TrEMBL record, chains A, B:
Assigned keywords, A-Z: DNA-binding
Protein name, per record: TetR/AcrR family transcriptional regulator
Molecular function, one GO term: DNA binding
InterPro entries (UniProt xref): Homeodomain-like_sf, HTH_TetR
Start and end residues of each HTH tetR-type domain: 14-74
Annotation: DNA-binding region: 37-56
Length: 199, 199
C-alpha cells in the first residue's frame, strides 16, 4: 500500500469509527443513559477506548456530535421538499416530514435538550440552528408573500413553530397518548397554523 | 424547654434548612451549575453537609424539590385568579400571571427540564403536573362551555398551552429578543389562542 492509499484507508476508518460512536450515542440515549462515560461509549460502539477518546475527548463532545447529526438529517429532509409547491401545501409537507424525522431521533434527542433557547443559539451562530432557521424561514416567507400569513416578527414565528414541533411533544403524543403519525401531523400542523395565523 | 417545645423547635429548624437548601438550588441553577454535589449545595446554603444529606440524599432529590416548589408557586398564583371572570379574560389573566411567574423561576428551571413529556408525567400521577393540569383544564372548560373554544382532546389542548408557555421560550424572548413582559404575554397569549382555536 503506498502513502496515498494508506491515508485514504486511515480516513475512511476514522469516518467509520465516528459513525459507530455516534450511533452508539443514540442507543445509549434511547435507553436514558445520558450520563455515559467515554469508556462506556467505546464499549457500546465495539471500539477501543483510545479510539473513542480521539474522536470525543468528553461525553459532551459526543452528545454535540449526535445532536448535530440529528439536526442535519432534519434539515436535509426539509431541503428535499419541492420549493415550487403551493405555499400552504409546502408548509404542510414540512410539518409531515418533520414529524417523520422526529420519530426517528426524537426518542434519543428528547434526553439532551439544550437549556439555551432557539434565539440564543441562533444569535450565537450555532450551525445546526442557523441551517434549520434558514429552511423554515423560507417556508414562512413564501406564505407571507402569497398573503397566507401576516408579515411580522419572523424569528418569533420560527421559534413558535419549532416550539410546537418539539420532539418531546411528538414523543409524548406517540408513546403516551397513542396517536398515529398522521394524527400528530394533523393536530400539531393545525396548532402551528393557528399560532402563526396561517390561513 | 419541654418535649413539645423541643419538637416544634426541631421541626421549624428543619423547615428553615430545607428552604435554605432549596433557595441554594435556585442560585446554583441560575448560574448554570446543574451538576452540583450535595457538599457544594450545603456550602451554597451555609449549612453543614450532614444536614444537607439528611434533606437530600442525592442532587436529583434537591432538583426535584426545587422543581416542585416552582411548579407549586405557579399553581398557587393561578388559583388566586378570580373564577368569575369572563372566560376569555380569565384565560388572558392566566397567561399574564404565568409569564410573571416564569420570569421568577424560569432562569433556573430552564436548566432542568424533564425528558418525560407532560402527558407521561400526568399519567404517572406527578403531583406538580396533576395540579397544573387541573388548574389549566378548568380555564379551558369554561371557554368550551361559553362557546369560545371547540370541545376536543383536552389533554392535548393543555399540552399545547404548556408547550407554548415553556419557560425556556419566555427566557429566550426576554433575555435574547429584548421583549418586555407585556410583549411576551400578548404574543404568546395570541399564539396559544390560535393554537387552541379560542375565539
Amino acid at each position: 500500500m503506498d502513502g496515498a492509499q494508506q491515508r485514504t484507508h486511515t480516513r475512511s476508518d476514522a469516518v467509520r469509527s465516528r459513525v459507530a460512536l455516534t450511533d452508539a450515542v443514540e442507543r445509549l440515549l434511547r435507553e436514558g443513559r445520558v450520563d455515559f462515560s467515554i469508556p462506556e461509549l467505546a464499549s457500546e460502539a465495539g471500539l477501543g477506548v483510545a479510539t473513542a477518546y480521539r474522536h470525543f475527548p468528553a461525553p459532551s463532545d459526543a452528545l454535540h456530535a449526535y445532536y448535530a447529526r440529528a439536526a442535519g438529517e432534519l434539515v436535509e429532509a426539509l431541503r428535499d421538499i419541492d420549493v415550487d409547491l403551493d405555499p400552504v401545501r409546502r408548509f404542510e409537507t414540512h410539518c409531515r416530514e418533520w414529524i417523520a424525522q422526529a420519530q426517528t431521533w426524537g426518542p434519543a434527542v428528547r434526553h439532551i435538550r439544550s437549556h439555551e433557547g432557539f434565539i440564543e443559539r441562533l444569535d450565537n451562530g450555532d450551525p445546526s440552528i442557523v441551517a434549520l432557521y434558514s429552511a423554515l424561514d423560507a417556508v414562512l416567507q413564501a406564505l407571507v408573500d402569497a398573503g397566507h400569513m401576516p408579515a411580522g416578527d419572523r424569528r418569533v414565528a420560527v421559534l413558535l413553530w419549532i416550539t410546537i414541533f418539539d420532539e418531546r411533544v411528538v414523543y409524548d403524543l406517540e408513546h403516551h397518548h397513542g396517536w398515529t403519525a398522521e394524527q400528530i401531523v394533523e393536530h400539531l400542523g393545525q396548532a402551528a397554523r393557528g399560532a402563526l395565523r396561517i390561513t
